[in-house]
Write a structure and sequence with these properties.
- Helix 1 packs parallel to helix 2 and helix 4 crosses helix 5.
- Helices cover 49% and strands 23% of the residues.
- Strands 3-2-1-4-5 form a five-stranded mixed β-sheet.
- By secondary structure, the chain is an alpha/beta fold.
- The protein has one domain: Nucleotidyltransferase, domain 5 (2-Layer Sandwich).
């Protein structure tokens, strides 16, 4: 069994999800959101994200982590701030010696729903179906669990290829 941490980075809300994977079985462990105060300076908000993610890494001891890639939007300032949060999300597991993978939103949707054009509601519905024990209080947590599920699928495929196992 391997424990995976999925992260959906955001400066205001960073979603996180922890799953255990044994073969093709997925088991929900925990999920939630790290929220920062929008009235506080960006460096302080990044420190809050860092501290929250470090606590998760120490508490749940994931073996691997996966982070959703940032999409570029029309507002350059918002994209830059999202990039800061994503940098923290990549750095924290790396500092703990945890391998980190990155997946685009379309890859995550394809892995969980079957199509890269899936809506947020479809992704959350499939996450709830795949992880019935998940509590999911915010869409950010659902997205983070979807990132973890995506990594579990990609990881399983990579292990099969490395082991020379043919899939029917």
């Amino acid at each position: 069994m391997v424990r995976l941490l999925g992260i959906d980075p955001g400066l205001r809300f960073t979603g996180w999800g922890i799953i255990d994977v044994a073969g093709n079985r997925l088991c929900h462990v925990a999920d939630g959101v790290i929220a920062t105060d929008g009235d506080v300076a960006v460096p302080e908000r990044l420190r809050c994200l860092h501290d929250g993610l470090m606590e998760l890494v120490h508490r749940f001891a994931p073996a691997e982590a996966a982070v959703e890639e940032t999409y570029v939007n029309r507002n350059g300032s918002s994209t830059l701030k999202l990039g800061y949060a994503r940098g923290v999300a990549l750095l924290v597991p790396a500092l703990a010696g945890i391998a980190v993978s990155e997946y685009g939103a379309m890859a995550v949707k394809r892995a969980v729903v079957g199509t890269g054009a899936a809506s947020k509601e479809q992704v959350e519905m499939m996450v709830r179906r795949l992880l019935p024990a998940a509590t999911i209080k915010r869409a950010d947590a659902s997205d983070a669990l979807a990132v973890a599920i995506c990594h579990a699928h990609h990881r399983a495929s990579a292990l099969r290829v490395a082991g020379g196992t043919r899939m029917a």
